[in-house]
Write a structure and sequence with these properties.
The protein is mostly helical. The chain has two domains: about 55-130, Orthogonal Bundle (Cytochrome Bc1 Complex, Chain D, domain 2); about 140-260, Cytochrome c-like domain (Cytochrome Bc1 Complex, Chain D, domain 2). It contains 13 helices and no strands. It binds heme C (2 copies).
Length: about 260
Amino acid sequence: MPKTGSRLQRRGRAYAPNNALLAFPLQRPRFMQVRNWLAVLCLLLAGAAQGAGDPAAGKALSLACSACHGMDGATGLLPTYPDLAGQNEKYLLQQLLHIQSNKRPILEMTGQLFGKSPQDVEDLAAYYASLPGKVRAAEGAADALARAEAIYRGGALERGVPACAACHSPAGQGNAPAGFPRLSGQPAAYTAAQLKAFREGKRSTDEDYGGMMRDIARGLTDGEIEALANYLQGLAPLSPEWLGRLQLAALPQSAGAEAGMATE
Ligand code: HEC
Ligand code: HEC
């Protein structure tokens, strides 16, 4: 499909179905609103029942994975290997299907998902989502981390970069129902490599989301990517980064704005 219109317009289109879904019941008479929401709820529940994997069955399949991702799902063999523990199930499932179909080619994982049924893949996603996530410590110079924090909370709007927190949540926990990944605690080398892969169009798994991560990463410099990755490695509720944020938020509005803090 040819890309037309501005970046924001394109992104707007990607959001349109959600907005339409939200607005839809409000335009109907009251008795119909209830029915619509009940229908949506039934669909969601049906989807949840169907899509849910079995963590115990996933654990039985995970031995080979643990060689690289760690027995706890959060101790990669190399710093460029991602944590899977604590990641949301929907995102894990989507990525596993992309890896299996080679839409996201991962050389190291060649053959790992070969012969795994759709149920096996769902079970693996459910297993890793059920494990507790790990958080590391933020690294790097204070001014670089402050710049990262400012982008994470407020974006770099002049370059079309929206606030990461809007989708990945203020403490980096992601958005499980939407399948937006948790970034909190992820090793910096992995996160930096992904942002560069999005920026250079080498990772295109965001297609279902209108290519939003490729658009966003194109607005980031190498230095910003490194800083964001180092910052995210230590970001979690109650981490020093998070507590610092709460203290800043408690200051008068102007002080917060000076420090690059935007309201979510
Ligand atoms: C030989 C090492 C190796 C093995 C074994 C392996 N992986 Fe991976 N896995 C990787 C690497 C390396 C990456 C990241 C590649 C990249 O940079 O995109 C990855 C990425 C992933 C991702 C994407 C994570 C994200 O945040 O997007 C998932 C999910 C995953 N692996 C699951 C599994 C599962 C489940 C198994 C077992 C069936 C497994 N892996 C076995 C090396 C391995
Ligand atoms: C509008 C929503 C949105 C915003 C804003 C956003 N992201 Fe994302 N991000 C996503 C989605 C959706 C994915 C999953 C894409 C896919 O399926 O591969 C993602 C994936 C990622 C990943 C890959 C995670 C992994 O485990 O491999 C990283 C890293 C990331 N985003 C960082 C950022 C950073 C840094 C920012 C801010 C500069 C940001 N994102 C802003 C929606 C967003």
